[in-house]
Amino acid sequence: MNESFARAEICRIGKSLFDRGYVHSTAGNISVALDAEDGGGFLITPTDACLGFLNPGALAKLDDNLQQTSGDRASKTILLHQQIYATARALGQEVQCVLHTHSTHSVALSLHPPTEAGGELLPPITPYFVMKVGHVPVIDYHRPGDPVVAQQVAQTIRDYAESGSAIRAVMLARLGPVVWHSTPASAMATLEELEETARLWLLAQPKPAPLSEANIQALRLTFNAVW
Q1: Rounded CA separation 185/204 (Å)
Q2: DSSP designation for 183
Q3: Is residue 22 annotated as a catalytic residue, yes or no?
Q4: 3-class state of residue 51 by DSSP
Q5: Per-residue pLDDT tens over the stretch 137-176
Q6: How far apart are CA 78 and CA 66, in angstroms?
Q7: Which segments of 22-77 are extended strands (E)?
Q8: How confident is the model at residue 37 (pLDDT cuts 50, 70, 90)?
Q9: Residue 66's closest CA among 42, 48, 36, 45?
Q10: Which of 80, 114, 174, 220: CA 20 to 30 A from 37?
């Protein structure tokens, strides 16, 4: 992704998420992996930056070795982002953006140990959750920025790939979701669908049954869903 476009997209996505309440205060971060022909490396939102008021020129720029070359001090989650890029790409996923928020309903679901099989945040209750988000494994709580999280997320991506599921999201317990995709806009759409499904699950009383395996198989065959 071209650097000037990437800077503009990070700021646009950040403001959109902030204006609609998907992020608040200085929570959350967004990164983009820059194209090799543009020198490679990463752009990421600065530490403690409000995503609603980002300055394109102040975004942190780092090289492929995570050495910062310009901008304000990088978010402490850059190691996690780097591990997601490296691991998902090694498995054939096209990934150029990683997005992390503290979205309310998703975090609320993670305040108790997950009850779904496999330790996942949500069951497959809607077709668009299956198609647009997929499995969302919960990562045990660690302090923000703990390097152990990067290792656990990378291993989780590999474990799901071995079982035939190319995941695009994980849930950091008590912190928030992390999603990744081929563009910032696609990452935002994935985050939106995840948060809205979490909201539906919390609102629904009694809890709905998940889609059946036959329902999910139809989504695989018709829409190429990877659940």
Answers
A1: 29
A2: S
A3: no
A4: helix
A5: 999 999 998 999 999 999 999 999 999 999 999 999 999 9
A6: 8
A7: 29-33, 42-44, 60-62, 68-70
A8: confident
A9: 42
A10: 80
Taking a C-beta distance cutoff of 8 angstroms, is the pair 66, 86 a contact?
no
Residue 83 backbone phi and psi in degrees, to 5:
-65, -35
Provide the whole-model pTM. 0.94
- Residues 74 and 85: their CA atoms lie apart, in Å, by 17
Residue of 140, 145, 139 lying closest to 48 (CA atoms): 145
In terms of Cα–Cα distance, which of 67, 71, 70 is closest to 82? 67
Structure-block tokens of residue 103 = 């979205």
Residue 185 φ/ψ region, left for φ over 0, alpha for ψ in the -120 to 50 degree band, beta for the rest: alpha
Residue 192: helix, strand or coil by DSSP?
A: helix
Residue of 22, 85, 128, 160 with catalytic role: 128
Tell me, rounded to whole angstroms, the distance of Cα 104 from its chain centroid: 15
pLDDT in tens, 51-103: 999 999 999 999 999 999 999 999 999 999 999 999 999 999 999 999 999 99
Q: What percent of the chain has pLDDT over 90?
A: 93
Q: How many residues does the chain have?
A: 227
pLDDT of the residue at 115: 53
Residues 92, 154, 169, 64, Cα dihedral to 10°: -70
Alpha carbon dihedral 218, 220, 223, 227, in 10-degree steps, equals 120
Separation of CA 90 from chain center: 17
Rounded CA-CA distance 130/126 in Å is 7
